[in-house]
Design brief:
heterodimer; A: 330 residues; alpha/beta; 8-stranded mixed beta sheet; 4-stranded antiparallel beta sheet; 31% helix; globular; B: 330 residues; mainly alpha; MetI-like fold
Chain lengths: 330, 330
């Protein structure tokens, strides 16, 4: 394996939301590393805290959230702790969109409906760089062309509702990449798209990553997409990372009972009909004042009474680059 | 876009014809006609009128015609600015309206302006501080403003001003200027009188618009495109006005036109209490005394202003919202 340089290191991140019903521990001690030019896939069911983790990086979680931990961005040999910056201050705003940018699930709602796509891309440039408008516009057109939008000179003036879903997501990617960030956070970027369009967008992201040399944090609940896109995978459950490893390790030798169950629940072609697709029993609990036990305890088929409900299992290294949070490996 | 405007214009014209029919029916609705009342009054005063004279008057005013003929005659004259005679005032209706309409329009436009200039910034301010002290303060004031009948406020203000400052705030002019020709002094006098009705009439509207602005802005603030803009690194203040405020103001801008009919009917009771020379009291008196040509003409004006207002709203809507501008062309 080539020598890996970290771009972003998350250390023991907690993002809590104090609600009237209790403390919502959306992210409850997450540690992750994203390496240069590599893609980290973050996978988990809805509500496991993957999106909040991503939003915590850019500090765009709602104001009342309580955040602790470190988010270290390695920028030109400097290390900046994003978690320590003021959430609407100058420093984090300089990083947003320039060094770390983000694309979202719903390209329809993620664009303002009353501004043209071009205006919104140009804004991403003009917020950071003092360049003439014409130059920003030319740059926007160039990016639209790069992401494969036909007739970009005309589309630059189109409004979001005039583009198809796939085109909108391409425009979204253009907007995120306009200042060649070193890290792109993609929060379920293909979930709202048709399967064929999805494949095109994924291919585009891979091509752009190779061309521009950036790292990607790819958030999805779709294991097929992870297998296609990611170099490393973090499996999240109830605000914690339960397993981390290379894509090969996660898919070939999954260790955590949750990861194993997830992989068994993927429908496969070629499997005999009438064989029931396996589902994980129960539903994802809401992390409202969660007890300090294994988060997966109540749904786990290998639950050991007295051990799994005793404490939160440690995050154990079981092979080079492969860690798991499960009592079975202690 | 031109098709859209043309379509709206045709709707407005068709509605205008239906409106004229309804107004005509209203004018014809009371038993008897203006001649009957006229004759009755003359008889009361002891005059003797012979049958031939009545017949001549009937022919002259076209009172022996069929309803259809009457309608076309009335409508044709209305279009030429002849609106019939007010027997209550014994003057042509158009002369009565000419006297009062300018003040009504002046008062209403300034009130409208005042309402928006005060309400929109307050709405934005409280929406960005939801559940803060100022939010509660303005909510209480706003509901109080909505719940207090305007004429009540007018009476209280009149009382307070008279008791503590010895100023009579009724009317639009002081007695020395009321019949004087226009001069700088008279204009100044008008302005010193104008602000009381503006505040009195404006409070309810202001309170209402604060609520609307606050509500729509709160909706918009949690939209995805706000997060997108934040993730681009746009500063909070700039972001607020460029995106959510821009969206939240749409319903307010596009309903400005609906305020036009209020310009004529105005706040009738307030106008009576403050003895303002506007059309509101005129309509009120006309309805009580069955002065149907006057009442009908004012109702007609209300209808026309509603149509113009709606038409303006439609145009404003396509100016502010590209999704409507490009309807059917996407």
């Amino acid at each position: 394996m080539e020598k890996q340089e970290p771009v972003l290191e998350i250390r023991d991140l907690h993002t809590f939301f104090p609600l009237e019903e209790g403390m919502l521990k959306a992210v409850n001690g997450v540690s992750l590393t994203i390496h240069k030019n590599r893609t980290l896939g973050v996978v988990g069911e809805s509500g496991c805290g993957k999106s909040v983790t991503a939003q915590s990086i850019l500090r765009i979680v709602p104001d009342f959230a309580q955040m602790t931990g470190e988010i270290l961005l390695h920028k030109n040999g400097e290390v900046i702790d994003l978690a320590a910056l003021a959430p609407s201050g100058r420093e984090i705003r300089d990083i947003r969109g320039r060094d770390v940018s983000m694309i979202f699930q719903e390209p329809m709602t993620a664009f303002s409906p009353v501004h043209s796509v071009g205006e919104q891309i140009m804004e991403a440039i003009l917020v950071h760089d003092d360049v003439p408008k014409a130059e920003a516009r030319a740059h926007a057109i160039e990016l639209l062309k790069l992401v494969g939008i036909p007739i970009p000179e005309e589309r630059v003036d189109a409004y979001p509702h005039q583009l198809s879903g796939g085109m909108r997501q391409r425009a979204m990617i253009a907007m995120a990449l306009v200042l060649t960030p070193m890290l792109l956070i993609a929060d379920e970027p293909t979930t709202a798209l048709d399967v064929t369009i999805q494949a095109q967008i994924l291919r585009l992201m891979k091509t752009l990553q190779a061309e521009m040399g950036m790292s990607i944090m790819f958030i999805t609940h779709d294991l097929g997409v992870i297998a296609n896109m990611a170099d490393d995978v973090a499996v999240m459950y109830l605000g914690r990372v339960v397993e981390y490893g290379s894509v090969r390790q996660i898919f070939r030798t999954p260790k955590h009972p949750y990861t194993q169950a997830l992989l068994r629940s993927i429908p496969r072609t070629g499997r005999r009909a009438r064989v029931r697709l396996e589902a994980i029993e129960g539903i994802v609990p809401v992390p409202l004042d969660p007890p300090d036990i294994c988060p997966f305890a109540d749904r786990c088929t290998q639950f050991i009474p007295g051990r799994c409900d005793e404490k939160v299992p440690d995050f154990l290294d079981i092979a080079s680059g492969h860690s798991v949070r499960c009592i079975l490996y202690e | 876009m031109i098709g859209y405007i043309a379509q709206r214009l045709i709707y407005a014209i068709v509605t205008f014809f239906f409106l004229s029919i309804v107004v005509f029916i209203i004018i014809q609705l009371p038993p008897g006609d203006f001649l009957t009342s006229y004759v009755a009054r003359l008889e009361q005063e002891g005059d003797i009128i012979d049958e031939a004279e009545i017949e001549a008057l009937k022919r002259e005013y076209g009172l022996d015609a069929t309803p259809l003929e009457k309608y076309f005659r009335w409508f044709g004259r209305f279009l030429q600015g002849e609106m019939g005679r007010s027997f209550e005032w014994n003057q042509p209706v158009e002369r009565l309206l000419k006297e009062r309409l300018p003040y009504t329009i002046l008062l209403s436009l300034i009130t409208l302006f005042f309402t928006y200039v005060v309400a929109v910034p307050i709405g934005i301010y409280v929406a960005t501080r939801q559940y803060g002290f100022s939010d509660y303060l303005f909510s209480v004031l706003g509901f109080a403003g909505l719940a207090t009948p305007n004429f009540m406020l007018a009476l209280i203000l009149m009382f307070l001003f008279f008791k503590y400052f010895g100023i009579s705030v009724g009317g639009l002019f002081s007695s020395e200027y009321a019949l004087a020709p226009w001069s700088l002094g008279k204009i100044w006098d008008l302005f010193t009188h104008l602000w009381v009705p503006i505040i009195v009439i404006g409070t309810a509207g202001t309170a209402g618009i604060i609520r609307v602005m606050r509500g729509t802005l709160l909706d918009e603030l949690s939209k995805q495109y706000v997060i997108t803009a934040r993730a681009k690194g746009v500063a909070e203040g700039k972001l607020l006005f460029r995106y959510p405020v821009r969206m939240a103001i749409n319903p307010i801008v596009s309903t400005v036109g609906w305020q036009l009919p209020r310009i004529v009917s105005g706040e009738t009771i307030v106008a009576i209490v403050l003895s303002l020379p506007t059309t509101g009291p005129l309509l009120f008196k006309a309805l009580i005394s069955q002065d149907m040509f006057l009442a009908g003409s004012i109702v007609m004006f209300l209808g026309i202003l509603t149509l113009i207002g709606t038409f303006l709203s439609d145009i404003l809507l396509i100016v502010v919202d590209p999704r409507i501008r490009f309807e059917g062309k996407a």
